Amino acid sequence: QTAFEKAYWDRFGVELPEIRAVLVNLHTAVIGRRKPVPLTSLIAETEQKTKIEDCKIGIRRVWFESGWKETPIYKREFLPKQANFNGPAIIEQLDTTIIVEPENQVEVDLNGNLIISL
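Given the sequence above, the corresponding structure tokens read:
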């Protein structure tokens, strides 16, 4: 608290003794070494499914602005090219997780890119 009050005074020249310091946001980044990942393992065409239903690996309750939603979880490398589906959805892949909000639409283009329309 003392450090916050000093930093606030130094920056703004105002004392606000009635305001308590609260950690609201914290951003971290980690850089590390790992074994090389062959890019072909990210989206191997041999793992692609033909139907979006076959890409689902689970369901999870997720909180969105409109409330709790039973949300399907898809494995990215399973998604077939030219697939289309609506959110909510979670798309998991080796290096990231994508949250698709309700009412958003996902399209997988011919190159395997995800195009999410808001």
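The chain is about 10% helix and 35% strand. Try to locate this feature in the token string yourself.
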